[in-house]
Specification:
The protein is of the alpha/beta class. About 45% of the residues lie in helices and about 25% in strands. It folds into two domains: about 40 residues; about 200 residues, Rossmann fold (3-Layer(aba) Sandwich). Strands 1, 2, 3, 4, 5, 6, 7, 8 and 9 form a nine-stranded mixed β-sheet that branches.
């Protein structure tokens, strides 16, 4: 385009130069604008968190990209650096109510499969579900799951009716604000008398809040009300330290819900 303009304005070299310079600046501006837009799209969830906006959930694309990048160092970072306790907390609360084995157990948001060895002795069939293919690849190496499924956990639960005896989510619901879709889907996917266990980061604010970390925290009152609406009984509720971050304990709740109907 620049050469065309010079040809059209042979007697106005100053004007042609100005036009070319302007076009160059516009081109640079467009490139920079595109880079900013791409950055915001890839990190919109964190931008919303920093701005204090409340969204219903973290986008699947954000969660997938986050954990695909995190997969190789995930276990070391959580278990050693963050003193991660969620898997043991969930297993402990389930052990209070479930003495024998469970035919079909689903690890929702299984990640690299840290929970797998804890639940393998309990499950006749152990299924892991996660959004991140990189995390699932590592989980496969543990050789403790009967099946590993790449899927959104809410969509996965919606596709099954009365099939599962136990579902659990350790440190997963921090990427969901509105828990109604998950609890509604779980009420359908679980057999009558089955259990749903999970951890959440706690908050004194009503309902849920998107924290500056990009993780959601949920109030007890919100989950208690939602559980009743979805026909769950609260079988157990414990406060616990989920991990240590920045030398400070991250407090949360460990929930065990019982599917009514027996």
């Amino acid at each position: 385009m620049g050469s065309i303009l010079v040809f059209l304005l042979p007697d106005l070299p100053g004007a042609a130069h100005l036009v070319l310079q302007t076009l160059w600046l516009v081109g640079v501006w467009l490139v920079l604008t595109w880079q900013v837009v791409r950055l915001l799209c890839n990190n919109a969830h964190l931008v919303f968190a920093r701005l204090g906006w409340r969204t219903a959930k973290a986008p699947a694309s954000y969660v997938r990209a986050l954990f695909d990048d995190y997969a190789e160092r995930f276990d070391q970072h959580l278990m050693v650096e963050l003193a991660y306790t969620a898997p043991n907390l969930v297993r402990g609360v389930i052990g209070q109510r479930l003495d024998g084995s469970a035919p079909v157990v689903v690890d929702l948001g299984c990640g690299t499969g840290i929970c797998g060895p804890l639940f393998r002795p309990l499950a006749e069939q152990l299924i892991g579900v996660d959004l991140s293919p990189a995390m699932l690849k590592i989980a496969q190496k543990r050789k403790v799951y009967d099946a590993l499924i790449e899927a959104d956990i809410v969509q996965y639960m919606r596709q099954h009716k009365g099939e599962f005896d136990l579902c659990f989510a350790a440190d997963v619901l921090v990427y969901l604000g509105d828990l109604r879709p998950l609890l509604t889907a779980s009420a359908v996917a679980l057999k009558p008398g089955a259990y749903l266990a999970f951890t959440v980061e706690s908050t004194a604010q009503p309902n849920w809040v998107l924290q500056r970390t990009g993780r959601y925290a949920h109030s007890r009152g919100y989950i208690q009300a939602l559980a009743r609406q979805c026909e769950f009984e609260i079988a157990a509720l414990e406060q616990a330290t989920l991990r240590i971050q920045g030398d400070k304990p991250v407090l949360g709740d460990v929930w065990l819900l019982h599917r009514s109907g027996v």
